Amino acid sequence: MIMKWYAVAALALTLSLPMAVHAAATPATPARAAAVVPQVLPIGVAVSALPLAVEDRTGYQRTSFRHWNAGDIPADGCNTRQEVLLAEAVVYPEIGPGCTLTGGVWWSYYDEREMTPAGALDIDHMVPLAEARDSGASAWSAARREAYANDQGQAASLVAVTARSPRSKADQDPAEWLPPSAEALCRYGAEWTATKLRWGLAVGELERDRRCDIAVGCGGTDVEFTPVP
Predict the structure, then answer these.
(1) 39-96 tens-digit pLDDT
(2) How far is the C-alpha of 32 from the C-alpha of 44, rounded, in Å?
(3) Which residues of 139-162 are buried (b: 16+ CB within 10 A; e: fewer)?
(4) What is the pTM of this model?
(5) Interior CA angle at 228 toward 194 and 171, to 5°?
(6) What are residue 125's DSSP bridge partners?
(7) Angle made by CA atoms 84, 34, 66, in degrees to the nearest 5
(8) How far apart are CA 55 and CA 133, in angstroms?
């Protein structure tokens, strides 16, 4: 059933994938290279757009992905973690010296919980650093790995959630871990796929098959992403 669905999705991808995605397979002119625009794909088509590869974690070191750095606005005195918390606050916190955050309220969609204070949350890498390394980041420069680890250019890449969620998730992909809330499943599947598409990362066979299952149950869900040059 999964493989039959995957074959149909692959055909749909060939027929309907936007030109900006197809362009990656052909030599780009300078004009094309500059025209990186947001993409929106049905979740099934998006899953089938990712290449299949054997994952290898040999040599992975978390310190190879420098984080948290000075963030998108170095002059604000806040690091990436703090900037994500400010961006995702439901009730905005007070900002003290050294970007100390006091008060504030956040919504952890992984487990449908309202959270406060800021110290009760972790910033989760949607696709964990080790998983990114397995999926293609092993060939990246140190600067690109740092950019990935601090990516605020796409809201799905870094997510403020209850501390217990990413600690339970650790380095696992969707074949091994999914959010505890059933209401979060389609969003999580879409955002995981969006992050891999944004960074040109591959998928393992079990991961692909599990995400195909998720896509079947999430008809009508779109995957939005902007490729990183």
Answers:
(1) 999 999 999 999 999 998 889 999 999 999 999 999 999 999 999 999 999 999 999 9
(2) 26
(3) ebeeeebbbbbbbeebebbbbbbb
(4) 0.84
(5) 50
(6) 158
(7) 35
(8) 9
